[in-house]
Task: structure prediction
Amino acid sequence: MSVAILCGGGPAPGMNTVVGSIVKSFLKNGIKVIGLHHGFTGLFRENANTEELDFLKADAIFNRGGSYLKMSRFKPKAEDFEKNFNLKLFKDNDIKLLVTVGGDDTASTANRVAKYLADKGYSISNIHVPKTIDNDLPLPNHAPTFGYTTAEDSGAKIAATIYEDARTSENWFVIAAMGRSAGHLAFGIGSACHLPMIVIPEMFNKVEITVERIVNLVISAMIKRKIMGLNYGVVIISEGVFHELSEEEIKKSGINFTYDDHGHPELGKISKAQMFNELVGKKYDEIGLSIKSRPIELGYEVRCVNPVGFDLVYCTLLGNGVYKLFKEGATGCMVYVDNAGDVSPLFLKDLENADGKIPPRLVNIEDQKSQSIINNVLHYITESDYKAAEAYVSDPAVYDFKKILGW
Result:
């Protein structure tokens, strides 16, 4: 009997920890582990790129960033199952469990694979380990997705250096951070570094997200800092604000998206920071603010860093949890580890809405944590600043933070 592991989607800190821990726990119990390179592609080609994983390999990779198992975003179509599925791989290796590490798309595909095999008379178990640095999977009790804590930590170190550069050179920097559906990463990094402006999709809970509103939020911080006698600063924006722009706004801004295999806009192919910095630059030139700003893209830099202690422990428990669930007969589920370290199965259907989709976990912009940062850390124009702001703009109300957001 053997177990097969594959990794789908993009990397997150802790992937090697999960894989290494799975290998160690199964080997300790006499079960062979096979690593599948290039995600699901190996299951749909005759010559899959496989590798038997031993203790030495697991021990060499478990605390490293990146993913030893090469990843892929390949998502099979119905005809791939009928024409290209590599059933021989499962039979020849006596594979009884397929472990997948990835997002909800990867988990859904794993369920399809298990169902297809069952229909062909070869039943297997499948267990999924959810990952995303976006932290947008709605795990119970606010449990983070693995890799997020490390990405936030690494991003904060980079942003702190950028902030010091801004202070030293008296410039502004515009950071665009990863976060397709939710602003956890941008908000976490911005909070940790006391950045004067954070812009995430969840802030637009009363009004439509528009380029003008995003730009005006940044200008609001720039004017407020000038009033304070500060000619520098850093703003961080979640890429999700671009994802949420209407088609009309996208066309107006000149943003051209391509799409990945899962139908998601390939935001990584567009320099959001460069584009947004130009839009902000046009605005402060137009109103006559004496400011210089520079764009910084932040995302790929934090995906493959070595995991911090929290994720090393968390991912070890997730990997060990896979063996526990398998031994208990669980299948078609995700492994979940709560704050006490207890392992339990979590099923996709428990997270799905009425439409069968998993809604992203958003930043709760109205909770005490978020409001504490917004009210005490961010810098922006309020009504009490109007008179002082008139030294820089003729219409300060346009840049009133709460009016921009309809709060």
